[in-house]
Specification:
By secondary structure, the chain is mostly helical. 82% of the residues lie in helices and 0% in strands. The protein has one domain: Up-down Bundle (Growth Hormone, Chain: A), CATH 1.20.1250. It starts with a helix and ends in a 17-residue tail after the last helix.
Amino acid sequence: MGLQVISIPWLAVDYLALSPRFVGLIQAAVLLPNILLIVGGMAADRGLLVNRFLMLLIIYAVIHSVLLILLSQYWLSIIWLLTYALLLGCVGAFVQPGKDYILGSLAGSNLQSTIAKNQCCQYLGQAVGIGIASKLYVWNVNLLPLSQIGFTLLAVFLFYFFNKIHALSTLGASINAVHNKNTDAKSSLNFVSLMVSGVQFCWDSIVLRSLLFVVIVNGFFHIGVFIVALPVLVKTVYFGDIGLYALLQCLFILGTVSTTVIVMVKGQLDAPGRRVIFSLLYAGLILLGLSAGPTTYGLFFLVFLWGVVVGISATLGRAILQSQVSSQYRGRAISIYQFALFGFAPLGSLFAGIAIEYWNVLFVLKISAIMSFIAFAALFFTRPLWDIEAEDTQSTR
């Protein structure tokens, strides 16, 4: 993921020299397949992804191999980069709910700490990938997909032994048995009814409804805008290269890691719902600071703070989500949560790409800041998320 964070936008901005509009389109292509997350969530609820997770990782390696061929033969174009991004997004739509479902199924009683450990490993891995990508791009661009193939195959190797240790095949069979037991013997639940029941479950919970609103704002105005604005900001405002872009990404990751470490050490944070709500306010203030065009050191500090805010929001948001759902709905609830986040992110990317061309990147950051303040004000006076306490985010077995 760290290699991908650097390779896709910088191949668009620098290697193909695309305009902000097309950079937004490329970034949207990575996120757009997340409409399949609901399908992935339903597959997770039936225990199907547990036994097929290894195959999904192998498919990742095949996709990266295609990119290696395209780069080595100088065939890469906007169409091929879009296709590559879409394929990665499609596989990720099944990998993410599968990973989160396994995490929730194996978690102990302290869900916040367990998720924080998972997030910390993921963020540290991304930081390593970002550092490697910034060097490989300068040395030889073909080394980017080659490294992605290597790391993906390493993940295949590690997950194979993880599967042996935790007997995930047995877990998948037991999940499927529960699903079949809960399904009417005369008429199995079809795709539509499964999807509708998952959405209905989330909608009926006022806590999940409020949480999904936060996630939608984060997806559109934070993730969607961030992944387009940051490389354009580096290239057009600070006249930087891939080294500066990678450094900013590492600072962002460092911020997220610092918050997850705090959760790991403390075990849990009090008032998680209030912290999630205030993350909107803090994100708005950071975006407003970025829109002022700070010095390079100011840019470093603000991007680090943004990582801190994202780390708190992501860890506590996922803990609240998993604590509010039973195992019967966990996969679908996770996928709906991810869909709300990454389903609106491509819309935010398209908005950012087009808006940056019509106005400028600093003005678009200011718009995102204002929308964050409005979202914070809308949730500040509501109680469902506000009243969630730390003891409410214990694992629901």
